[in-house]
């Protein structure tokens, strides 16, 4: 029987670099990253179905009513949600799944799936966080203040997660996350007695 995949939830404040870290991890591991749906407009370098599923607010609300999301949240006036069916299908097939989602969504997933692995990405410093958000070039002075203020509040939720990883460099952050995932696979309470079952079958 194929062991169920591990649900890995990665969050962090805007500008912490969680998207870049997740992309790098996917390139080096057999992880499947869930593509979220959102009502916000795509940035110039984003592709529908790759970065997000970009849908209308009306369509998003229809999918909420149908129970199509594992979690969803409204962030900065836009909705974000994780399609439920495809995530559960991949997990059932034994593949690990990464959810790169906001803190609101992560806490909802933790309530429904407490055995998931929850990792919080931190910036090296608040000054570096401000620089990263500013260097995006996609923020107005007003939205920059809003995001930076929100980042302070978001970081206070780090205690709700299992692990915190400082993203000083992408390579270093990825190495830490890979080590965490390997260690979690070796935890006795995550083995569900599979080894003992195998021994009984072979006797």
Structure description:
The chain is of the alpha/beta class and 203 residues long. It has helices spanning 18-28, 57-65, 84-92, 103-112, 126-135, 141-155, 170-185, 188-191, 194-202, and strands at 7-11, 31-33, 37-38, 53-54, 69-75, 78-83, 96-100, 117-122, 163-166. The radius of gyration is 18 Å and the shape is globular. Helix content is 46%, strand content 20%. The mean pLDDT is 87. It has one domain (7-202): Rossmann fold, CATH 3.40.50.300. It contains nine helices and nine strands. Helix 1 crosses helix 7 and helix 5 runs antiparallel to helix 6 (141-155). A five-stranded parallel β-sheet has the order 2-7-1-8-9, with helices on both faces.
The geometry reads as globular
Number of spatially distinct domains = 1
CATH-scheme architecture: 3-Layer(aba) Sandwich
Spans of at least 5 consecutive residues with low confidence: none
Structural class: alpha/beta
Q: For the CA atoms, what is the radius of gyration?
A: 18 Å
Largest sheet, order of strands side by side?
2-7-1-8-9
Mean pLDDT: 87
Annotation, overall tally of beta strands: 9
Number of helices: 9
Stated plainly, the CATH topology is called Rossmann fold
Give the distance, in angstroms, between the N- and C-terminal Cα atoms.
Answer: 18 Å
The biggest beta sheet, please?
A: 5 strands, parallel
Bin the strand percentage. Answer: 15-25%
């Amino acid at each position: 029987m194929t062991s169920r995949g591990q649900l890995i939830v990665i969050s962090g404040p805007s500008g912490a670099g969680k998207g870049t870290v997740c992309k790098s991890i996917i390139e080096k591991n057999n992880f499947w990253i869930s593509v979220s749906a959102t009502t916000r407009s795509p940035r110039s370098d984003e592709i529908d179905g790759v970065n997000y599923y970009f849908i209308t607010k009306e369509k998003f609300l229809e999918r909420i009513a149908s129970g199509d999301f594992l979690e969803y949240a409204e962030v900065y006036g836009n909705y974000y949600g994780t399609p439920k069916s495809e995530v559960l299908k991949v997990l059932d097939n034994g593949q690990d799944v990464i959810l790169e989602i906001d803190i609101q969504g992560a806490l909802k997933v933790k309530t429904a799936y407490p055995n998931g692995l929850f990792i919080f990405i931190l910036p090296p410093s608040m000054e570096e966080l401000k620089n990263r958000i500013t260097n995006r070039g996609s923020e107005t002075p007003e939205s920059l203040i809003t995001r930076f203020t929100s980042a302070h509040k978001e970081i206070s939720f780090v205690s709700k997660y299992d692990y915190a990883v400082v993203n000083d460099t992408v390579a270093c952050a990825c190495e830490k996350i890979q080590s965490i995932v390997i260690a979690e696979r070796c935890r006795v309470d995550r083995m569900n007695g599979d080894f003992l079952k195998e021994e009984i079958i072979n006797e």
